[in-house]
Design a protein that fits this description.
four-stranded parallel sheet; two-stranded antiparallel ribbon; Dna Topoisomerase Vi A Subunit, Chain: A, domain 2
Length: 189
């Protein structure tokens, strides 16, 4: 069990041991509920046919919602980013989940990402803006640039989310790249 837990992201030897011993102390019915929940997630969940988000239906609840702004698509690397944006309650457009970022060193090229669905949606018409919300890493930047080169020729405006100094951080602790990006992304006050 410990070895299996170590396959999960962010779980090392000590955490895996802690989880295993915790499960041993849990009542049997609670362990059974956990096992059932893990089994059901693989049986019931699949990817939305439009945006690649997780869903139990053909289309996720976001893609089914006619009140969402159909002219904007926010591109994210993973579903957990989509849910983080949704928690803000501010973005009312659609999404597209890539399920990763370009990473040649890890053997992840364009074919391993969910790109075609995004291009199909942009080609279909009605989409005016694609917002790149990939992580501010080398892989995320490369992915955003790659996608922009594919989407722009379709007559769709491509933008990138702003990034820089997090709220509550003293400027003296920010690194030079973050400060530079903050200056580049400044706006009128």
């Amino acid at each position: 069990m410990i070895e299996q837990f170590k396959h999960l992201p962010g779980i090392g030897q000590k955490t895996a041991q802690r989880l295993a011993f915790h499960l041993l102390k849990m009542p049997a019915h609670e362990v059974e509920q956990l096992v059932k929940a893990i089994s059901e997630i693989k049986e019931r969940l699949h990817f939305c046919s439009a945006c690649e988000n997780l869903t139990e239906a053909e289309l996720c609840s976001i893609c089914q919602n006619p009140k969402r702004d159909q002219t904007k698509i926010l591109v994210v690397e993973e579903p957990n980013i989509l849910y983080a944006v949704e928690r803000t309650g501010e973005y009312r457009g659609l999404y597209h989940v890539l399920h990763g970022a370009l990473s040649p060193l890890d053997g992840r090229g364009p074919a391993e990402l969910k790109v075609q669905g995004l291009l199909d949606r942009a080609k279909k018409g009605g989409v005016k803006e694609v917002i790149m919300a990939t992580n501010p890493t080398i892989e995320g930047e490369a992915t955003a640039i790659y996608l922009a080169r594919l989407v722009r020729p379709l007559g769709v405006f491509v933008s990138r989310i702003a990034y820089g100094i997090p709220v509550g951080v003293d400027l003296e602790y920010a690194d030079e790249v973050t400060l530079l990006k903050s200056l580049e992304g400044r706006r009128e006050l």
